[in-house]
Amino acid sequence: MAAYQRGDVTAFAELVARHEKPLWIFLRRLVRDEGAAEDLLQETFMRVIHGAAAWQPNAKFSTWLYTIGRNLCIDHGRKLQHRHTLSMDHHVGHAGDEEGGAARLHEQLSGADRGAERSALNRELAARLDRAIAALPVPQREVFVMREVLGLPFAEIAEAVAASEATVKSRMRYALQRLRSELSDTPAERTSAEVEP
Amino acid sequence: MTLSNDEFQARMIDYLYGELEGDELRAFEDQLSESDAGRRELAALQSTLRIARDGLAQAVYEPPPARVRSAVLAAAAAQPPASEPLRTTQPTRVDEQVGFWHWLRAPWLLPTLGVAAAVGLVVFGRGVESPSVHIDGHPAQPAQAAPEQGPVAAPPPAAANESSQLEEKAAEPPVKVQRAPDKTARSPGMRAQADGFAVPPPAWNAQRESPAHAQPAPRSVPAPARERYTEPEQAAPPVQDKAPRATPAAPAARASSEIDDAFRRPANRGQPSRAEATVSRTLGDLIRRAGENVAARRWQQAAADYRELLRRYPSDARTEAWKKQLALVTQALRARERDPR
Description:
The structure holds two protein chains of two kinds.
Chain A: H1 2-5, H2 9-31, H3 34-51, H4 61-83, H5 100-111, H6 115-134, H7 138-149, H8 154-161, H9 165-183, H10 187-195
Helix pairs in contact in A: 2-3, 2-4, 2-7, 3-4, 4-8, 6-9, 6-10, 7-9, 8-9
Chain B: H1 5-16, H2 22-34, H3 36-58, E1 60-61, H4 66-78, H5 94-98, H6 100-104, H7 109-129, H8 145-149, H9 157-171, H10 188-194, H11 200-209, E2 227-228, H12 239-242, H13 251-264, H14 274-279, H15 283-295, H16 299-312, H17 319-338
């Protein structure tokens, strides 16, 4: 970034190459609309370009980048709320058992350790997880994605979402609890029963 | 050290991620050993996390659209932070300034048309009554001078101002008019840039929020090759690897595009040729124009601008940046020549 501040455009190209994919994944997970995510991805980098002159190397570039992307997502969500077309905080709760569903699913996943069956089960798990993550409230979803998908430390996440580290960890805990609830639905049990009679 | 229930809950995640140490770790584990509910909660969280990680490991992430990168890099090349500010105000679209509706809204239009109509009526009436009035050598009426000059020849001062501004706008090098036929810019932001906005974000926003663009055109995004995303922070290879290879373009293709460009220019509302327009430019104008051309993906003109900058100002401190931008623009130009889509 410092090189780009000195006018080195190729340095910016390297920055884009390094960060565009994680940022794209983050935005896709947050807005769930490919077209909107594409616009947000482009606008995030445009904001970086325009804020580059004022950027100071006292924070990680990735933190700054995700902060911009996150704020744009929030703006996007507000616009959608005005249009009543999509609720980003849509959540379907389950009154299922406590930890049983998730634990059983994982056990079944481990048990079905053979070839195509396992692959099919994994694909199903990935799809279910996608839906479960998408159903998380935005504050929990962004923390979960930043930590588990992007691998950011909690301190950096706290900086990006402008919250305390304790708050971020609390959101992470709630996110895991909600995921457990979402994943406790057991279509995989049927698959597992077919796999292991 | 006894933890309150809130503290115990708060440290659950720390423990889960291995971020507890020393006394805090011991205190947490002591309390955990005494709490069945705490152990169940922790086991549930651990189980969910394992499932989530297994599921995420199976997730397939499509790469971001390449057009976003090209648009972003073009904008970065157009506005390097070290250079002078290119434009601080909201950019205006030239076609809006000189377009038909703007002309129709001009304050001098109605009075001028009224005068012209009145003069026309007078002339027509006189022509019908005495068609030989001029031929016979009679002294000309004061009103007869007006139709010869026409109402536009002597507009009121405000109208003259407007006219001169319009002429200046028309004489400017093309911003909107000479739009490069870029079919790859499909996203709203890229469309906005292709429409002649020099400074992308504000213009892009304005474009996106304008009613005319509220409904984006249906996307025709080709299904990109799916690839797995394994390491979130893994550094991508240098951009040179991903950028279009800089093989020299076929001479025939390049020549034909230049000829096309040359043909486009004179037909463009009678504007001066590029050479004429360039000679009169100052350094700031040239830099701004180059930036606008890059933002609008008019690579050929942008390349010409940067070459002109390097030729005319070889000792400027920004020559290195110009050279790099010229290289990028040339690369984009060659990529387009290879694949016009």
